[in-house]
Design the sequence.
């Protein structure tokens, strides 16, 4: 069994691009991987193309041999675009191997360790704030819109949601998700602090009892600002406040100053990055991006987290292929807090991978088909190309911009 070709796809997912890798073999099997990133889509698939001569002609079942060869070649560009490209290839190789053996990928790792996985509705309100027309939902034009959405989350069976800071209005304002980057000095103005309380209170008024709310601050705040936001969040039933920060001790400082659980890690790569945070006890829950780390390395991180008595939460705001890949990870490790999924999305999301997902009480079943148990529909991918040079798609000035 030999790899004959690697093809990539950059798909228009509305306000961000999704990137896919197809590894084709001489016996007719195609393995699919996803390595979506909103900022440099053609940089990532271009890097996949750069790696292709090191992969084509080899047996795809030797996944680790190929992974480590690519890792060694890319060692001088750690993390970032190179890591994402390697991850996209590695994920496609696991899919091809599972299909060749006729088993789900999780079975290659001794799974499944669980049958179903609890999910949280991510970018709840934040996707609608800027892209409600494309999604086909009401706008976020008032705090009551958050309450109505909280009610919808509960009625649709979910037991947790995650939102981002959004100031409702016409138009709504926020960071990312079609709005643009974060505040230049990572300070938090009083207007935002007032909004934190009003937004979380509005969601809390809509969700049912016991539903947990998470707030994702991304990289937008320095420790002083993040600490102020966490203290406001303490009055609500918080799943966590999520903070990305490249300084473990600074994150630990925030965590020590609040009773709200702190989650972090979605932009870290491999055990080398995560270990510093685990040793500093910087986070309560560990976010892992599987399309950026690859499957085996994500599992390494999860098991290292287990040794530090930490649970993980797959970072997954991508296509259903990524959702399946993350479910496979959950099926092979014993320490999962909860898993992310975007419910509000482009109308062609289901079509891109052959149909919708079967949610039951805010959970999904661990896939049982060969490989990831789901395939990219390449015709649909080709019908929704993210045009080269389009950029990250931000069109509005974010709050706090000079
Ligand atoms: Mg996040």
Sequence:
């Amino acid at each position: 069994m030999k790899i004959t070709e690697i093809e990539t796809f950059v798909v228009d997912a509305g306000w961000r691009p999704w990137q896919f890798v197809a590894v084709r073999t001489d016996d007719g099997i195609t393995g699919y991987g996803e390595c979506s990133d909103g900022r440099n889509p053609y940089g990532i698939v271009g890097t996949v193309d750069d790696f292709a001569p090191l992969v084509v002609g080899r047996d795809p079942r030797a996944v680790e041999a190929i992974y480590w060869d690519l890792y060694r070649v890319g060692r001088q560009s750690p993390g970032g675009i190179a890591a994402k490209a390697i991850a996209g290839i590695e994920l496609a190789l696991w899919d091809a191997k599972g299909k060749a053996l006729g088993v789900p990928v999780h079975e290659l790792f001794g799974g499944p360790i669980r049958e179903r996985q609890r999910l949280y509705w991510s970018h709840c309100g934040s996707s609608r704030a800027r892209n409600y027309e494309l999604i086909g939902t009401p706008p976020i034009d008032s705090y009551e819109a958050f309450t109505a959405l909280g009610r919808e989350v509960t009625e649709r069976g979910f037991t947790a949601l995650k939102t981002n800071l959004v100031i409702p209005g016409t138009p709504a304002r926020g960071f990312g998700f079609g709005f643009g980057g974060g505040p230049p000095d990572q300070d938090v103005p009083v207007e935002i602090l007032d909004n934190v309380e009003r937004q979380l209170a509005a969601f809390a008024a809509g969700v049912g009892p016991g539903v947990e709310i998470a707030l994702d601050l991304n990289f937008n705040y320095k420790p002083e600002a993040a600490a102020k936001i966490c203290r406001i969040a303490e009055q609500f039933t918080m799943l966590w406040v999520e903070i990305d920060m490249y300084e473990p001790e600074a994150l630990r400082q925030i965590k020590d100053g609040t009773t709200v659980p702190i989650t972090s890690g979605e932009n870290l790569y491999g055990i080398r990055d995560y270990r510093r945070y685990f040793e500093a006890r910087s986070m309560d829950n560990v976010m892992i991006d599987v399309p950026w780390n690859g499957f085996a390395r994500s599992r390494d991180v999860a098991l290292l987290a287990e040794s530090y008595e930490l649970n993980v939460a797959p970072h997954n705001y991508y296509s259903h292929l990524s959702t399946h890949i993350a479910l496979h990870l959950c099926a092979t490790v014993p320490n999962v807090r909860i898993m992310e999924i975007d419910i509000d999305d482009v109308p062609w999301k289901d079509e891109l991978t052959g149909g919708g997902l079967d949610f039951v009480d805010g959970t999904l079943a661990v896939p049982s088909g060969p490989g990831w148990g789901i395939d990219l529909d390449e015709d649909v991918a080709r019908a929704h190309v993210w045009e080269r040079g389009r950029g990250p798609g931000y069109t509005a000035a974010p709050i706090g911009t000079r």
